[in-house]
From TrEMBL:
Keyword Metal-binding part of the UniProt annotation: no
The protein's name: Thymidylate kinase
Originating organism: Mycetohabitans endofungorum
Gene: tmk
Enzyme Commission designation: 2.7.4.9
SUPFAM superfamilies: P-loop containing nucleoside triphosphate hydrolases
Domain Thymidylate kinase-like residues, every copy: 21-210
Length: 218
């Protein structure tokens, strides 16, 4: 696959940018998503582009149907990972790649890093198996920038306590989320040019100052 930041879809407008938000449940990323999208849209507009907001699992009719199953139904760990990547393949084909190809930008609430963190780190599925699926499904596609909202697990747990009725992932133990966070940080260490880590224990204003600094680099 060609580089998603330098290839061109027509001769005039550059290929769009692909930005992802990541973090354990309770990290606070969703709190900032709309604000970040508004600010990101200002940057994209300078290139005549729009920002499309999407999510994983989800983003397509098939993906949203699979999301309900994944978040609510118990299943074998490998089946869970395969369904995640099935939803992702559809998401890439139907939403992400066409959007980037026409020069628009994609902002996704989670992508493959979440699968490595949750199914790999949290649940203990072989990282090697996930890497095979990643290579097959994505064919080299990676986000231009991944914003990782990082908080200690006890902080995230306290935040989740005030949320709506939890899904099966939100109901997991602090030990699960400690493993999930560790895998996120391992992924970030492997790809420091792609990841921007936000200290999400800060106030909303302070987090947005960090996000402003990231926006300048896009």
């Amino acid at each position: 696959m060609t580089d998603i930041t330098t290839s061109r879809h027509d001769g005039h407008r550059p290929r769009g940018k692909f930005i992802t938000f990541e973090g354990i449940d309770g990290a606070g990323k969703t709190t900032h998503l709309t604000w970040f999208c508004d600010r990101l849209s200002e940057r994209a507009a300078r290139q005549g582009a729009r920002v499309i907001v999407t999510r994983e699992p989800g983003g397509t009719p098939l993906g949203e149907a699979l999301r309900e199953i994944l978040l609510r139904q118990p299943m074998h760990l490998e089946a869970e990972a395969l369904l995640m990547f099935a939803a992702r393949r559809e998401h890439i084909a139907a939403v992400i790649e066409p959007t980037l190809a026409r020069g628009d930008w994609v902002l996704s609430d989670r992508f493959t890093d979440a699968t490595f963190a949750y199914q790999g780190g949290g649940r203990g599925l072989s990282i090697d198996k996930l890497q095979v699926l990643e290579q097959w499904v994505q064919a080299g596609l990676q986000p231009d920038r991944t914003v990782l909202f990082d908080v200690p697990t006890d902080t995230a747990s306290a935040r989740r306590g005030g949320a709506r009725a939890p899904d099966k992932f939100e109901s997991e133990s602090d030990a699960f989320f400690a493993r999930t966070r560790a895998e996120y940080l391992r992924r970030a260490a492997q790809a420091p040019a792609r990841f921007a880590i936000v200290n999400a224990t800060s106030s909303i204003a302070e987090v947005r100052e960090q996000l402003e600094a990231i926006l300048i680099t896009l």
